[in-house]
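User: Can you fold this complex?
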Amino acid sequence: DGGITQSPKYLFRKEGQNVTLSCEQNLNHDAMYWYRQDPGQGLRLIYYSQIVNDFQKGDIAEGYSVSREKKESFPLTVTSAQKNPTAFYLCASAKETSGRGNTGELFFGEGSRLTVL
Amino acid sequence: QKEVEQDPGPLSVPEGAIVSLNCTYSNSAFQYFMWYRQYSRKGPELLMYTYSSGNKEDGRFTAQVDKSSKYISLFIRDSQPSDSATYLCAMRDYGQNFVFGPGTRLSVLP
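Assistant: Here's the predicted assembly.
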């Protein structure tokens, strides 16, 4: 089945540790995104990538890093520099949306919940 | 003023009621409008996607867009307990900028 797979679903981290969240999609989508979701707030964009080997910072990129070495994969590293990393992290993908008439729907994975101990 | 405003709820309705969920936005560049349903501890699931002003119907769901008023709505007819979830509106311009509302939590009581 086509979709977006995030792992792990739950992750615990000690302060000062880096952790990497995995995101894989088999939808053949060009664009991939990482969002952070906190209670009572809308989704906030961390990073996005429109093509392999290229990515842009979103609104809250500080303390995070990403890579896009393959079209299917967009891992997110939460570094020790992120001051408040406990949150629900969502990976998403979309068809390339440049120009009018493209579909542009955003599809999400099931999320990864990170808790800092 | 936030780019996208959404009544946070929570909203409780009896089973069978018609539910109206609403978002307003300030950026006239938004052209594509989406509604997502998110169950607790799950990723958002796309319910409706619309481009033009007007109504779009899919089963018990109707999405309404009024670009002149910068207002979108999602109507749920014959609501069911399984509709209990958080509903997120989202919108996008012609680029890659998706913006989300904070979500409305809905409870449908049997």
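The CA atoms of residues 4 and 69 of chain B lie 13 Å apart. Chain B touches chain A through 26 residues (CB under 8 Å).
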